[in-house]
């Protein structure tokens, strides 16, 4: 089965519809499937439920779907970098299901593993646990969380072969591998596309069986969410130049 498509639009053809649930990998702006997100925006689908650690920033990543009001609900851990999100949420125009970050990760992993629910101590006695089943194990109270499974997962990988085997790099690994397993269809964008056999089997993180479609994005933009700089002192400049201090 051919998995590599010429562009994001063709890779998503026949997969998108209104009111569907989409998982989107990334942590901040690191490792986000930006090209696929832009294609979803251009498709015009609406009423989306998006499962993602965060909601991008204004004008970048998932932020572009908020600007076009294509998102109905976010299931996330952190959304503090997006003013558009805050404005829509406070106006009652956007639903949010907040999750502790570890709980969100485990809900996705559980969904991919076919685990419908699990118990955790995180959130017990807080708003996170409201309306959820609790149970006592060994004298400790735990809250039940449901696994998450989506109609579509869009992810970003550093390298992939044409069979869909994927490798991630550093922080860009984040939520991408677990999301690849937790959807009916997974579409990946990869920076380096190679032939089958070119990746050391021991280095493969996501096996190709989980990936149905792929696109090659050789010049993926690496954005910095918050650039913070300071002036280097004289000692640091000297060391940088190879001088002794």
Helix content: 10-25%
Tell me the strand percentage band: 25-35%
Number of domains: 2
Q: How many strand segments?
A: 12
For the record, what is the CATH homologous superfamily label of the largest domain?
Glutaconate Coenzyme A-transferase
Task: Just name the CATH architecture of the largest domain.
Answer: 3-Layer(aba) Sandwich
Using the coordinates above, name the CATH class of the largest domain.
Answer: Alpha Beta
Q: Helix/strand/pairing class, anyone?
A: alpha/beta
The helix/strand series, from N terminus to C terminus, equals EHEHEHEHEHEEEEEHEEH
Low confidence ranges: none
Shape: globular
Distance between the termini: 61 Å
How many DSSP helices?
7
Rg, please? Answer: 20 Å
User: What average pLDDT do the residues reach?
Assistant: 90
What fold name goes in the CATH topology slot of the largest domain? Glutaconate Coenzyme A-transferase
Topology:
Blueprint: E1 4-5, H1 8-11, E2 21-24, H2 34-43, E3 48-51, H3 63-67, E4 71-76, H4 83-90, E5 95-98, H5 101-113, E6 117-120, E7 134-137, E8 140-146, E9 150-161, E10 166-167, H6 176-180, E11 183-194, E12 213-216, H7 234-240
Parallel strand pairs: 1-12, 2-3, 2-9, 3-4, 4-5, 9-11, 11-12
Antiparallel strand pairs: 6-8, 7-8, 9-10
